[in-house]
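FIELD: query
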Amino acid sequence: MIRFAALAAALTLTAAPALADPAGSSLTLTFDTAAQTGAVMVALYDSETAYQGGQPVRTAQVDIAAGQHDAVFADLPAGAYAAKTFHDVDGDGAMDKNPFGMPTEPFAFTNNAVGNMGPASWDRAHVAVNGAVAQTIRLR
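FIELD: result
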């Protein structure tokens, strides 16, 4: 529960649009969402330590309400990356939770990895980026 609160805080405080640049390696995340409102908040991590509670190396906010569905992280050094995402369906800038601290808005991770009573592990969520890599992530 605390992990989800930390994720929501990191994404809410640091969200900014990702800019595309054709040079270097890139990671394109396409979001398949049930609702066509709000925005998908994305935090990208470049190490297991950062993924488990540190600062993201990059962030993005994908405006689903405006018809956007992609976050492009360009000019990345080759390496392993993992993303934590949530769909801010109501557009209030925060991940909504029930009284027990469990998320009530959709969330997902790279590789469509699933966690057990918390976020997916780095081992399940990380993806090797060397050149152009693309993934579709389902947020339901």
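FIELD: remark
The chain has a mean pLDDT of 88.
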